[in-house]
């Protein structure tokens, strides 16, 4: 029964943990890359072969056609599947995702690079905003849960949680660009302004970002408020909160005990949801014609731009894997029970 | 470790605590009067639902909703009626004047903070100016209880065993030099050896610091180890109260007698232990009039149906039973 106080592991254990995550993440990325390679190769009507053959029909020599296709897809259209796979992995290691078909000759990596900025910032802003808002409201909803305000807050959470994100987006578009036209309906920025660090351009950027960010915020706010409310209610019932009150701790300190314990599980979800939103941004970017990763993916699918499709998938995967690692490290940093590697 | 002030007396008078239930407000504690003699340990025993934890919480005016203190007073020397305190006055009383060792003290600590940081939170909440001295006091108390103080203060809850957590709970209740200490089920869920250690510590610290201590438990054996006085609760009433040797040695209330008969002995035939017949009452099944124990009582009389027995004193001990005053032999009912 009486066990000695454990030594808390320090740097070495942390490094081991990070290394483990990185290795697992790399394996996951490799698996996704392999799957997307196989799918693109094995899809009915083999796009790579089709490309190769259409180039042949256009009068290219087999050699030329092979090279052109290899440049586009990052792997060879002829040769065994294994050879092609090795070639594809080889170029991946050099961070070469091939070239786009729909925007001929442009590298997939540069397309993704320019699209990423339009996804990362709004997603980050929207997620953090909805997290702060949802968590704060969740605490109120829990504390006032027997009153009208609490009911109202919980109801707002359930409602927003239940409405699909594209409905929220379309409603916002209808309200703020048609009924009451105060915000631009689409695009990332007004083309009238010269790109750069000038007030007009920045203002236009922000103006255009309002609706997408608000949509991201509303879309995940419901989940946060509901999760936080139930966490706070659960922690309120924990013995240590009553014990803290019976020890005469100041209200502010008891509140901090409560909030910190209730918010802890949400940090993991936060990091994960930032990762997931890179993929989930499809609807929102489509609605607001926002040139981010989601729109890039949609366009690559509709134009059968397989190199771009595979590349975008891969980047979204990397985003999610990184978010997973960050989530776990975050948890390690804030929960002493995880830090010392014990589950209880 | 101040011994300058004498232990305070605690006078609970006519305390009634009701719980709001779908069936209306039902009393969990009903007109309880109990005096804790300064410098003594009073044990309170009773079955689950007898109102003993509610009684303990009342001492800090901390009955949790849907419960409510309906009437009565809890006077503590130097504090006045605790039930009249509220807001900051009440908060300052808790922890500083009246220490409380929580039921299931296993879970009475914030899992995310080290014990030391929680100690500092306690000190800051009570405006302790010399936090270093507070830490030194805490270490002294912990080592007094057989723990490595510095190490415990640097630990999180999950790094401590059940017995260690319980001792930390006791340390936090005592470190601000509270003169009245309430321990709610201090040894429940601990193994026998740890139980014995905790009880010894309670007794020793109590004597060292000249405290007035209330120990709530359902374990008559545990309370017999430490208490000077014993109060037996049943159905929200104190049915018998007096010096522990007398209450346990020559119980007068039929419920106390039944409780003692129900204790299995380490030596001897286990079948000698008799379970009390029937079940403990719940808030909803308590009879509205008459004696609350009559359903399970072997000395039941006609008057028990209608009149609630008043508390009477018999050789230094108070008993609430119509039959207690009649020394005449009562025929034993046999139970299978």
Q: What would the keywords be for this entry?
A:
heterodimer, A: mainly alpha, MetI-like fold, disordered N terminus, B: 336 residues, eight-stranded mixed beta sheet, four-stranded antiparallel beta sheet, globular
Write a structural description.
Chain A: InterPro entries: MetI-like, MetI-like_sf. The complex is a heterodimer of chains A (344) and B (336). The radius of gyration of chain A is 25 Å and the shape is globular. Chain A contains 13 helices and no strands. With 344 residues, chain A is an all-alpha fold. In chain A, 76% of the residues lie in helices and 0% in strands. Chain A folds into two domains: 11-93; 117-304 and 320-339, MetI-like fold (Orthogonal Bundle), CATH 1.10.3720. Chain B has a domain at 104-177. Helix content of chain B is 31%, strand content 23%. Chain B is built from eleven helices and twelve strands. In chain B, the strands form two sheets. Chain B has an eight-stranded mixed beta sheet, with helices on both faces.
Tell me the layout of helices and strands:
The complex is a heterodimer of chains A (344) and B (336).
Chain A: H1 11-42, H2 47-57, H3 62-73, H4 81-93, H5 108-143, H6 148-162, H7 165-179, H8 199-236, H9 239-246, H10 251-287, H11 293-302, H12 306-334, H13 336-339
Helix pairs in contact in A: 1-4, 1-12, 2-3, 5-6, 5-8, 5-10, 5-12, 6-8, 7-8, 8-10, 10-11, 10-12, 11-12
Chain B: E1 10-21, E2 24-36, E3 41-45, H1 52-58, E4 67-76, E5 80-81, H2 87-96, E6 98-101, H3 115-125, H4 131-144, H5 149-153, H6 162-174, E7 180-184, H7 192-209, E8 212-217, H8 220-226, E9 229-234, E10 237-243, H9 244-249, H10 254-261, H11 302-306, E11 312-314, E12 317-319
């Amino acid at each position: 029964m009486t066990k000695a106080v454990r030594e808390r592991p320090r740097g070495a254990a942390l490094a081991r943990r990070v290394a483990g995550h990185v290795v697992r993440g790399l394996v996951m990325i490799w698996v996704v890359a392999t799957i997307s390679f196989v799918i693109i190769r094995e899809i009915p009507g083999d796009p790579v072969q089709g490309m190769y053959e259409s180039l042949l029909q256009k009068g290219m020599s087999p050699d030329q056609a092979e090279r052109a296709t290899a440049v586009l897809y990052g792997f060879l259209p002829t040769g065994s599947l294994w050879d092609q796979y090795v070639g594809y992995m080889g170029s991946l290691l050099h961070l070469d995702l091939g070239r786009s078909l729909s925007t001929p000759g442009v590298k997939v990596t540069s397309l993704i690079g320019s699209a990423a900025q339009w996804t990362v910032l709004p997603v980050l802003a929207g997620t953090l905003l909805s997290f702060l808002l949802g968590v704060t409201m969740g605490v109120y909803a829990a504390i006032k849960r027997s009153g009208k305000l609490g009911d109202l807050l919980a109801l707002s959470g359930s409602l927003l949680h239940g409405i699909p994100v594209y409905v929220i987006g379309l409603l916002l578009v209808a309200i703020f660009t048609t009924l009451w036209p105060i915000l631009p309906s689409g695009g990332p920025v007004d083309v009238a302004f010269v790109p750069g660090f000038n007030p007009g351009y920045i203002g236009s950027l922000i103006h255009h970002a309002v609706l997408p960010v608000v949509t991201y915020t509303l879309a995940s706010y419901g989940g946060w408020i509901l999760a936080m409310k139930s966490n706070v209610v659960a922690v309120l019932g924990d013995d240590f909160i009553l014990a803290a009150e019976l020890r005469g701790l100041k209200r502010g300190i008891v509140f901090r005990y409560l909030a910190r314990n209730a918010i802890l599980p949400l940090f993991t979800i936060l990091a994960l949801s930032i990762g997931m939103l890179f993929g989930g941004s499809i609807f929102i970017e489509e609605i607001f014609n926002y040139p981010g990763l989601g729109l890039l993916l949609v366009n690559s699918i509709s134009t059968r731009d397989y190199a771009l499709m595979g590349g975008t998938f891969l980047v979204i995967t990397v985003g999610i894997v990184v978010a997973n690692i960050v989530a776990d490290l975050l948890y390690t940093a804030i929960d002493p029970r995880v830090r010392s590697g014990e589950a209880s | 470790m101040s011994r300058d002030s004498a232990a305070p007396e605690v006078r609970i008078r006519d305390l009634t605590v009701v719980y709001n239930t779908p069936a209306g407000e039902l009393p969990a504690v009903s007109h309880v009067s109990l005096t804790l003699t300064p410098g003594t340990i009073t044990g309170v025993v009773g079955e689950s639902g007898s109102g003993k934890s509610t009684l303990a919480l009342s001492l800090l005016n901390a009955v949790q909703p849907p419960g409510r203190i309906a009437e009565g007073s809890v006077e503590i020397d130097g504090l006045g009626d605790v039930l009249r305190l509220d807001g900051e006055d009440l908060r300052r009383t808790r922890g500083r004047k009246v220490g409380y060792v929580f039921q299931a003290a296993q879970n009475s600590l914030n899992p995310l903070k080290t014990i030391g940081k929680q100690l500092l939170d306690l000190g800051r909440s009570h405006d302790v100016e010399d936090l270093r001295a507070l830490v030194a006091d805490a270490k002294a108390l912990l080592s007094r209880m057989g723990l490595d103080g510095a190490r415990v203060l640097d630990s999180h809850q999950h790094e401590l065993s059940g017995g260690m957590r319980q001792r930390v709970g006791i340390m936090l209740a005592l470190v601000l030099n509270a003169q009245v200490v309430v321990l709610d089920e201090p040894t429940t869920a601990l193994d026998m050896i740890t139980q014995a250690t905790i009880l010894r510590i309670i007794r020793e610290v109590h004597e060292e610091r000249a405290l007035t201590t209330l120990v709530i438990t359902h374990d008559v054996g545990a309370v017999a180890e430490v208490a000077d006085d014993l109060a037996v609760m049943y159905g929200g009433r104190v049915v018998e109260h007096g010096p522990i040797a007398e209450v346990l040695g020559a119980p007068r209330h039929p419920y106390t007698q039944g409780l003692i008969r129900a204790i299995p002995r380490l030596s001897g035939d286990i079948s000698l232990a008799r379970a009390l017949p029937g079940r403990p009452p719940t808030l909803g099944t308590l009879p509205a009039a008459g004696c609350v124990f009559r359903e399970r009582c072997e000395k039941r009389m006609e008057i028990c149906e209608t009149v609630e027995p008043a508390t009477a004193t018999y050789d230094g001990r108070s008993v609430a039973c119509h039959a207690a005053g009649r020394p005449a032999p009562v025929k034993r009912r046999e139970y299978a």
